[in-house]
């Protein structure tokens, strides 16, 4: 058994019942064999052994009172995975599926994603198994305040700076920031994704979706393709999906399908984004109602069927492992030439192998969806400066960061003998920066 396989086996044995974490570690470490062959000093320093073990794992009780006066209890998490290149940075997710393994997988991925941005931020992630769906404003506020009443002890502008994720948008960030401020008696840039009236950054809402399309554009143009005129399928209908769709349309592409956890809509005339924004951002309704407004559109139960729609570019932006090997084969058979991950690890290993073996251009999430955290880091910078940049200034910085990410991962793949394999390129480029920082800081 190789050194890398020994580390993977140790991770599986020491972290039982956490398949998402096992998957993320395996995917990264298996692509690092070529780096370790060239840098045996990383093995001697135990970089991998340290890299796969979080620096800190925090689990806490979150009691809150619902509108009927009943005491409810959820579980909260914060995993501070690696601070070698900066304070921990990563979102907070509120969803019933959240458990320690999900948070560890997300935090581990965040280490490399943050490294790729070029910004001085380490990797972390947090969340709770609380479900905001169906809850009143008062219930959500009380939950967020209770969650922050414990979390505030472990975060700070130079320690750990959380952001939003699934189930945590501007509303939830606002409630948590207010509670942090009350407990700390300090107005600090401790959360990103804040409202513009109290330290938020322009472009933050759009950043992950815009960044995804900026990197996709770089990837396809290098191969003589274009987003202009392309048929694009986007799973999800949250922030990432909505603003990826917006940028695709601005670049002349045609988005023909979007989804939520219940099903998907296909509009042969092209998705009307104003309708999706109204349904999802304002009314908080389900995607099925799109078809009631636009009669030529079709609604189908079950989100997985969205990948059966013939398209040129697929952007999975919903959740982990949503696109499996079977769906990948269907996309290939239907002529899809590019896939870029807007969500975290939305493609299964079988799907990724299918794309790579069929010469489909593929950008992994740790690179393709790094625009959100990159703009969060820009928000941190503005908070430290007590200053705000314009929309155009932030957008230009975001576009440059995504361009640099593409160039760096493409170059890393080429240097280590895997030209065109951006999965290897992203893992290698992200890893080397973190490994060098860990080496410089000794055994900590």
Automatic annotation (TrEMBL):
Gene Ontology CC terms = cytosol
**SMART domains to which the protein is assigned, alphabetical:** ELFV_dehydrog
What's one Pfam family the UniProt record gives for this protein? Answer: ELFV_dehydrog
Q: Which residues form the Glutamate/phenylalanine/leucine/valine/L-tryptophan dehydrogenase C-terminal domain?
A: 201-442
Q: Any keyword Oxidoreductase?
A: yes
Q: Where does NAD(+) bind?
A: 208, 239
Q: What residues make up the catalytic site?
A: 125
Residues marked Important for catalysis (site): 165
From the record, give the transmembrane residue ranges.
Answer: none
Source species, domain of life: Bacteria
According to the record's subunit comment, the protein's assembly and interactions are: Homohexamer.
Give the family from UniProt: Belongs to the Glu/Leu/Phe/Val dehydrogenases family.
Q: What is this protein called?
A: Glutamate dehydrogenase
């Amino acid at each position: 058994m190789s050194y890398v396989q020994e580390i993977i086996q140790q991770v599986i044995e020491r972290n039982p019942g956490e398949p998402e974490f096992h998957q993320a570690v395996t995917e990264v470490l298996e692509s690092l064999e070529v780096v370790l062959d060239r840098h045996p000093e990383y093995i001697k320093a135990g970089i991998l052994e340290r890299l796969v073990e979080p620096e800190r794992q925090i689990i806490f009780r979150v009691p809150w009172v619902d509108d009927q006066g009943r005491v409810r209890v959820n579980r909260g998490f914060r995993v501070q995975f690696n601070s070698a290149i900066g304070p921990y940075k990563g979102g907070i997710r509120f969803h019933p599926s959240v458990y320690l393994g999900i948070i560890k997988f997300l935090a581990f991925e965040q280490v490399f994603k943050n490294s790729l941005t070029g910004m001085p931020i380490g990797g972390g992630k947090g969340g709770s198994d609380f479900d905001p769906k169906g809850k009143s404003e008062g219930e959500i506020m009380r939950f967020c305040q209770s969650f922050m009443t414990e979390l505030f002890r472990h975060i700070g502008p130079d320690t750990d700076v959380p952001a939003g994720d699934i189930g945590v948008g501007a509303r939830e960030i606002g409630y948590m920031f207010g509670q942090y401020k009350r407990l700390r008696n300090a107005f600090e840039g401790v959360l990103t994704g804040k409202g513009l009236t109290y330290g938020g950054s322009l472009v933050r809402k759009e950043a992950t979706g815009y960044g995804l399309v900026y990197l996709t554009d770089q990837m396809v143009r290098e191969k003589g393709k274009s987003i202009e005129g392309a048929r694009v399928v986007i799973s999800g209908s949250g922030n990432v999906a909505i603003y990826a769709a917006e940028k695709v349309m601005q670049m002349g592409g045609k988005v023909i399908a979007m989804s939520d956890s219940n099903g998907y809509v296909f509009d042969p005339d092209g998705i009307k984004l104003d309708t999706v924004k109204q349904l999802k951002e304002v009314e908080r309704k389900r995607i099925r109602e799109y078809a009631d407004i636009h009669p030529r559109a079709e609604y189908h139960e079950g989100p997985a069927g969205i990948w059966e729609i013939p398209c040129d570019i697929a952007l999975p932006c919903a959740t982990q492992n949503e696109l499996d090997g079977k769906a990948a084969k269907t996309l290939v058979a239907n002529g899809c030439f590019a896939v870029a991950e807007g969500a975290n690890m939305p493609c299964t290993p079988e799907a990724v192998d299918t794309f790579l073996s069929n010469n489909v251009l593929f950008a992994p999430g740790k690179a393709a969806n790094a625009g959100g955290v990159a703009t969060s880091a820009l928000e941190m910078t503005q908070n430290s400066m007590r200053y705000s940049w314009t929309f155009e200034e932030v957008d230009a910085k975001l576009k440059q960061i995504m361009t640099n990410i593409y160039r760096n991962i493409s170059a890393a793949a080429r240097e280590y003998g895997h030209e065109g394999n951006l999965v290897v390129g992203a893992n290698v480029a992200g890893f080397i920066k973190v490994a060098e920082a860990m080496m410089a800081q000794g055994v900590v």
